[in-house]
Amino acid sequence: MKLYRSIDSEVSNVSDERFDRIENLLTQLIGNVASMRSGMDDLRTEVAGQFQSLELKVSELKDTMIRVEHKVNVLERRQDKMGSRLDTMEAELELIQDEKQ
Q1: How far apart are CA 15 and CA 21, in angstroms?
Q2: The pTM is what?
Q3: 99 phi/psi in degrees, rounded to 5
C-alpha cells in the first residue's frame, strides 16, 4: 500500500508539473497570438493609409491628364487654324505670282 501511495503521489506530482507546463505554454501561445494580431492590425492600418494616399495621387494624376488633354486639343485646333491660314496664304501667293507672269 505504501508503495502504491508513493507511486500515486509521484504520478500526481508529474501530472501537476505537466499541467503547469501546458498551462504556461498555452498562456505564452495566447500572448503570442495577441501580439501577432496587434501587429497585423497595425499593418492593416498602414496599408489602408498607403492605399488612400495612392488613391489621392491617382485622382490628382487623372485631373492633370484631363487638363493636359484639354491643352492638347486647344493646341491641335490652333495648329489646324494655322495650317488653314498657311494654305490660304500659299494659294494667294501663287495667284500673285501667276498674275505677275
Answers
A1: 10
A2: 0.55
A3: -65, -35
Rounded Cα distance between 71 and 94, Å, is 34
- Residue 72, all three cell numbers: 492638347
Cell of 17: 508539473
Q: How far is 55 from 48, CA to CA, in rounded Å? A: 10
CA dist 24 and 17 (Å) reads 10
DSSP category for residue 1: -
Q: How far apart are CA 62 and CA 68, in angstroms?
A: 10
Quote the cell numbers at residue 42. Answer: 497595425
Kindly report, residue by residue over 41-93, the tens digit of the pLDDT: 999 999 999 999 999 999 999 999 999 999 999 999 999 999 999 999 999 99
Q: Where are the beta strands (DSSP E) in 8-57?
A: none
The grid cell for 54 is 495612392
